[in-house]
């Protein structure tokens, strides 16, 4: 169920990895399901999730999300020991995983999580095939962002 141009409505977004857009050139986007425990779903509904430091690895032909923090709620996880930094399995079609493995083995490509969102009552993760940015590319991104802000400020002042 992947889509190279998947766009999710803003109201279904759970968490977003804005750092990924700054640190990487995004080549392709995919949508993957996430294997979660019950307490994790409840914590996600409460907004206790962070994917900024997350990344995706391939082990034995399967994808895993590492570094995604889901902080347990005190009231839900009383009978089990909740691990906030647990490795979570991502679900995709085997052909898509094989294609991603071929791309990741190329020099410079990596898989990064972009966001977590709700789709039909299930938690999905948008992952991206990305290439790391050089330091000068990051500086260019900052310059562009500041230039856009200055133009918006000037337009706002002009309209007053």
From TrEMBL:
Its main location: cytoplasm. It is found in: Cytoplasm. The keyword Transmembrane does not apply. InterPro entries: SmpB, SsrA-bd_prot, SsrA-bd_prot_CS. One of its GO terms (cellular component) is cytosol. Keywords: Cytoplasm, RNA-binding. It comes from the Bacteria. The keyword RNA-binding applies. GO terms for molecular function: RNA binding. GO terms for biological process: trans-translation; trans-translation-dependent protein tagging. HAMAP family: SmpB. Required for rescue of stalled ribosomes mediated by trans-translation. Binds to transfer-messenger RNA (tmRNA), required for stable association of tmRNA with ribosomes. tmRNA and SmpB together mimic tRNA shape, replacing the anticodon stem-loop with SmpB. tmRNA is encoded by the ssrA gene; the 2 termini fold to resemble tRNA(Ala) and it encodes a 'tag peptide', a short internal open reading frame. During trans-translation Ala-aminoacylated tmRNA acts like a tRNA, entering the A-site of stalled ribosomes, displacing the stalled mRNA. Belongs to the SmpB family. This is SsrA-binding protein. The lineage of its organism: Bacteria, Pseudomonadati, Pseudomonadota, Betaproteobacteria, Burkholderiales.
